[in-house]
Amino acid sequence: MLGGGFHTLRAGLAAILAAAALCGLAGRASAAEGGARAAVPVAVSARLEQTERSARLTFVISRPVHPVVTPLERPDRIVLDLPEVNFQVKDAAPPARNGLVSSFRQGLFAPGKSRIVIDLRRPALVASVTNTTLPDGLSTAFTIELAGTDRDTYVKAARAAAAPASEPLAAAPARDPQAAAKPLVVIDPGHGGVDPGAMAEGGVNEKDIVFSFAQKLKARLEATGRYRVMMTRESDVFVSLGERVRIARRAQADLFVSIHADTLSASPKVRGMTVYTGSERATDVESQELADKENKADALAGAESPETMEEVSGILADLTRRETRLFSQHIAKQVVQDAGSAMRLNKNPHRSAGFRVLTAPDVASILIELGYLSSNEDIALLQSDAWRDKATGAIASAISRYFAQRTAVVRGAAVSP
Ligand SMILES: [Zn+2]
C-alpha cells in the first residue's frame, strides 16, 4: 500500500518550473532594485499514503527543506515548522476514514514561517524526514514517514517536547471528555463593584451596561444548546484582571469574550462597536489609550498590589501562544463580519492593543467595546433592547461560525495548528 508512484510526483514538475520561473523574474526585479533575496521554495503537490500502522506524506518541492518536528497532545497532532514555503497544493485530500492520519494541512503560519500539521487518529511519531532528488534532477520529494506507536510513548514524546514550558501549560489536566463535547465560552463583563468603569452623563455606568449585556449574551448562547457558558462575575462585584484570566484558564475555556463600553476622553466623536485582540504593540493611539486605562482598573479599584501576570516561556508555550493569537484573530474577524451586517461598527472595527485581560496564552480571547459612553448616540443604543438583541444575535452567530470552522480542516493562506 505504501508503494511509490512517482508519476504523480513528476506531474508536479511543470508546475514547479512555472512557479520557479515567476520567482526568478521577481528575484531579478528585486535584485535590480538592490536587494537580492533567496526565492521561497515552492511545493506543488501533496500525497498521503497510509495503513493502520504507518503513513507517508510526500510533498514535491523545488528544493530541500528541514522542519522542526513537534508532537502535540489534545488533540494528537504532529506539527512541522519550516521556513516559508509557497504551497501551491490545490485539492484537499478528503479526510481519511482509516489509517494513522485523519487529515493534514499546510500553509503560512507567520511571516517567513510555514507549517504542516498532521492530525492523528492513533498515536504515531515521525520515523524519518527525507529530501530525495527526483529523477528530473530539479525537484525534491520531501517525505515525512510516520510510524504508529503506543499511547505511553506518544505522551512521553509530547511531554518531552513540552518540557521547556513551565507548569501552568504543561500540567493542565486532561479535559473531561463529557464536558469537552461542548465548547466552553467564558463571558467577562468588564469592571464591577468598586470599579464602575466609564461613567457617562446621566449616571450611566459601564459596569451595569456591560453586565446586563453579558447576561443577555449568555442566555442567547445557552439557548442554542451548543455551548457551556460561564461568567467571570455573576453580580456587581470587583474581579481583578489577573483573576479574570485565571478563571478562563482554570476552566479550560475555549473562548474568552470580554465586554466593555468605555469613554475615549480625547475623542468624543469615536463611536460604534470595536473588537480588540491582544498584542504587545497597539494598532493606534486610541487603542493604546484604552488599553492603558483598562489596565489601571485594578489599581483604581484599590487592589492591594498590581499582580504580575504569569509569564510562561519555552518553545511549546510560544507555539501555543502563537496558535492562540491566530484563533483570537479569527474570532475577532468573524464578529466584525457578522456584527457589521447588523449594526454600525467603528470605522476601524478590528484593532489590537496590550490589554491585560487578553493575555491568556492558551485561550482565544477578544474584547468587545460595544460602543463608547463618550458618544451620546452610543449611550442611547446601548440601552435599547432592539440594539441589544441585534448585537447579541450577531456575536452568537459569529461564535457559532468560529467553532464550526475551528473544527473543520483549515486550508488556505494561514494554517491553524
Ligand atoms: Zn471598560
User: CATH superfamily name of the largest domain?
Assistant: Zn-dependent exopeptidases
Q: Calculate the mean pLDDT score and round it.
A: 79
- Strand count, sense and closure of the main sheet? 6 strands, mixed
Class by alpha and beta content: alpha/beta
How would you write the strand order of the largest sheet?
A: 13-10-14-17-15-16
Approximately what portion of the residues adopt beta-strand conformation? 25-35%
Bound molecules: zinc ion
Shape verdict:
elongated
CATH architecture of the largest domain: 3-Layer(aba) Sandwich
**Contiguous runs where pLDDT drops below 50 for at least 5 residues:** 1-37, 165-180, 409-414
Q: Approximately how much helix is present in the residues?
A: 25-40%
Task: Show the helix and strand layout.
Layout: H1 6-32, E1 42-50, E2 54-61, E3 68-72, E4 77-83, E5 86-87, E6 101-110, E7 113-120, E8 124-133, E9 140-148, H2 151-162, H3 167-170, H4 177-180, E10 184-189, E11 199-200, E12 204-205, H5 206-223, E13 228-231, H6 241-250, E14 255-260, E15 273-278, H7 285-295, H8 297-300, H9 315-340, E16 345-353, E17 364-369, H10 376-382, H11 385-407
Parallel strand pairs: 1-5, 10-13, 10-14, 14-17, 15-16
Antiparallel strand pairs: 1-2, 2-9, 3-4, 4-7, 6-7, 8-9, 11-12, 15-17
The structure holds zinc ion (ZN).
The site of zinc ion has 7 residues, from loops.
